[in-house]
Write a structure and sequence with these properties.
This protein is α+β, with helices and mostly antiparallel strands and about 210 residues long. The protein has six helices and seven strands; from the N terminus they run H-H-E-H-E-E-H-E-E-H-H-E-E. A hairpin with a 2-residue loop joins strand 4 and strand 5.
């Protein structure tokens, strides 16, 4: 009887695992549809600021979709391969940014992180990469961004996003302290940092370089 009960328990756990993966797959597909609708709507708008807002929102939705895609493909249903997720996300962002934009990625393989941390870091990466494309582009309109994902200690990971632009102004830290530069993107980054108890370090190297340790 005990053997029978254990076998039934294993069967139910397998069903739960399959159901969870199917949910992740459907969530990913639904989010991709929403992202596509936002892109379609963006193309119908003439106001430049509104078009950018639609593009930014589409990228944010897509970043969460990428996490669910990674969950669907992972061996475990509660952890995500962060390097693979960020790589796929960066390829998407470079494609959305257009010709001349590229991301050079260096990712430690098999770096598994919990779902909650993966979502937060994916959203942070989305904001930093899209900002680099917008504000650090060269005169011809293109830009390259370097992104790295690595382990930084027991239970810690490091996400680094650096651009090849002119770098942040000397008074950037003071402006930040005075509350300037508090757009939606920066507010989202701060919220995600607080959510996973992460640290952000910023430097010019010589372009702007953001390092998140979580």
């Amino acid at each position: 009887e005990l053997t029978s009960l254990l076998a039934e328990k294993e069967r139910l756990l397998e069903q739960k695992d399959l159901l969870t993966r199917e949910i992740d797959h459907r969530v990913k597909n639904s989010l991709q549809i929403v992202s596509a609708f936002l892109q379609m709507q963006r193309r119908q708008i003439t106001d430049a600021e509104a078009r950018q807002a639609f593009a930014d929102t589409s990228a944010r939705v897509m970043s969460v979709a990428r996490v669910h895609d990674s969950l669907y493909q992972a061996e475990r249903v509660d952890e995500v391969d962060l390097g693979q997720t960020i790589e796929n996300l960066c390829n998407d962002l470079a494609g959305l940014a257009g010709e001349g934009h590229a991301v050079d990625l260096s990712a430690e393989p098999g770096l598994m992180v919990p779902y909650r941390k993966a979502v937060a870091l994916s959203l942070i990466a989305t904001e930093l990469v899209t900002n680099a494309f917008k504000y650090a582009a060269n005169p011809s309109g293109g830009g390259r961004v370097e992104v790295s994902v690595s382990a930084s200690g027991p239970g810690e990971v490091q996400l680094r996003v650096c651009d090849d632009g002119a770098g942040l102004p000397d008074d950037w830290a003071d402006a930040k302290a005075r509350g300037k530069g508090s757009g939606l993107g920066m507010k989202l980054i701060r919220a995600m940092l607080d959510q996973i108890n992460a640290r952000l370090d910023v430097a010019n190297n010589p372009g702007a370089c953001f390092t998140i340790t979580a």
